[in-house]
Amino acid sequence: MESSHGTIAIPAKCNDCPVKTRQIMERIKQALEKARQERQIHNGGIPGAQGREPVTEINYSQTRTVTVPDDTLRDNRIITGLNPGAFTDAYKLLRTQILQRLNENNWNVLAITSPGNGEGKTLTAINLAISLAMEIDYTVLLVDANLNHPWMLELFGIPQGKGLSDYLLDDVPLAELLIQPSRIEHLALLPAGRPLENSAEMLNSPKMANLVSDMKARYARRIIIFDLPPVLTSADALSFSPLVDAALLVVEDGKTQKQELERAIELLSGTNLLGTVLNKAPLKKN
Q1: Residue predicted with more confidence, 252 or 98
Q2: pLDDT-derived band of residue 280, with 50, 70 and 90 as boundaries?
Q3: Is residue 1 part of a domain?
Q4: How far apart are CA 117 and CA 128, in angstroms?
Q5: Which tens digit of pLDDT belongs to each residue from 98-120?
């Protein structure tokens, strides 16, 4: 990622991916710069969560710990289960640049999305959250906001259960929903819960807005990351984007089409888009 409109490449698992990295990165930079200029002219930033009624007090300290097998972490390319290398180094670089932008603007609520399905946004959200949690000065809350098709827990090998949808619909206390994966200190997960057909409406509900406002203000050194559905497949990301401080867009090298990327950036023009993650980029050969 470069400045407010650049890219960081996450290497692919193999080295036989099509070499299109340079071209797509240049397209991304141009599209993001155009969107940034239009946002400055028309919007001047994003609406915040001011003026909403606070929710009742929420206690995040009762998080239950769930053991996650090392083999599951390795198989799903979660960085705590991997040896140091290009993949883990890419997330350290991404973490550093994200922290710089968040601190510069006093932000702590970040959304991660993608133009379409299968481009790696959930794995990116998980690995970025873990990398941020490794910073001793921060705690991280990672929220699965894919209320229509939740699957973040599957990457940890944790069975699906109650989550955000149960809080929104049934007032289940968050203290009963949060999970801490074993060996990952300073990280808490808020699962999505049962799938909802009206997911966009729930993400745009006053109760959800109040919850985000509460999360944002409760802890000065906590970063909240929302893993959102893709921009082009549902209205969920656009419904929720006004509640976050900034967003990160994940694209896949050799898969994401130029018109898909441009359309996603256009739709997110009212959001502070930090940049893009180019997923499955081919490793450079020495």
Answers
A1: 98
A2: confident
A3: no
A4: 19
A5: 999 999 999 999 999 999 888 88
Q: Would you say 130 and 92 are in contact if contact means Cβ atoms under 8 Å apart?
A: no
For residue 140, give both structure tokens.
């991280």
Domain that holds residue 182: 6-50+62-281
160 in a domain, yes or no? yes
CATH of residue 267's domain is: 3.40.50.300
Measured CA to CA, the distance from residue 264 to residue 270 in angstroms comes to 11
Distance, CA of 160 to CA of 258 (rounded, Å): 35
Torsional sign, CA 51, 53, 57, 63: negative
Please give the order of strands across the beta sheet that includes 246-252. 6-11, 273-281, 246-252, 109-113, 222-227, 139-144, 187-190, 179-181, 64-66
Give CA separation, 88 vs 47, 57, 158, in Å: 34, 37, 23
Instruction: Tell me how far apart the alpha carbons of residues 162 and 25 are, in angstroms, rounded to a whole number.
Output: 39
Residue 57 lies in a domain: no
Q: What is the pTM of this model?
A: 0.80
Q: What total of structural domains would you count in the chain? A: 1
Give the residue from 206, 238, 275, 263 showing the smallest Cα distance to 46. 238
Instruction: Kindly report, residue by residue over 143-186, the tens digit of the pLDDT.
Output: 999 999 998 999 999 998 999 999 999 999 998 999 999 888 89
32 or 178, which is more confident?
Answer: 178
Domain annotation covers residue 221: yes
